[in-house]
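User: Sequence recovery, please. Input:
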């Protein structure tokens, strides 16, 4: 999964980064398998992030999970097979459950996190092709 990333320095003290899913993701029906929506991101220099997800599908009900890690050195990615692999990754916050044709927004503190990724699966029996750009993560930090 490739992310689309744009970084800005908004002022002498504030920097931002916006990350969106840069490829479609096939969210499979009730298989229990997860797919990577936002591949792992280095976020150590940002204080917080806001995640917005929209579900344009009128039948699927996906569940998204945000994972974070302190263990990974820069440049080392361990997301594999649609899952935040092994015990280096820990879920941050609650599941984000979406109804058909709905959206959600969630803000979390990333202070102290080095890496972040987002995975998803369908909670019912509907397969969905999750479109490019329907999951956006906006990071803000101080310089």
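Assistant: Recovered sequence (143 residues):
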């Amino acid at each position: 999964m490739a992310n689309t990333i744009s970084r800005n320095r908004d002022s002498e003290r504030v920097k931002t980064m916006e990350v969106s899913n840069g490829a479609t993701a096939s969210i499979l029906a009730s298989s229990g398998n997860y797919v990577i929506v936002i591949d792992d991101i280095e976020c150590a220099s940002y204080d917080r992030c806001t995640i917005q997800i929209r579900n344009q599908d009128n039948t699927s009900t996906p569940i998204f999970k945000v994972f974070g890690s302190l263990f990974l050195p820069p440049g080392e990615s361990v997301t594999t097979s649609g899952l935040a692999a092994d015990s280096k990754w820990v879920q941050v916050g609650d599941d984000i459950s979406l109804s058909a044709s709905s959206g959600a927004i969630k803000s979390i503190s990333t202070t102290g996190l080095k890496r972040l990724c987002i995975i998803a699966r369908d909670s019912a029996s509907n397969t969905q092709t999750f479109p490019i750009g329907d999951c956006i993560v906006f990071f803000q930090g101080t310089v």
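The mean pLDDT is 85.
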